[in-house]
Amino acid sequence: MEISLGKAYSYSRTFTDDDVRNYANLSADDNVVHLDAELAAGTIFGQRVVHGIFVAGMFSKIFGTIYPGTGAIYLEQNLKFLRPVFFNDVTTARVTLTEFNTEKRHGTFTTECFNSRNEKVLTGSARILFPADAS
Question: What is the C-alpha separation between 105 and 133, in angstroms, rounded?
Answer without folding.
Answer: 9
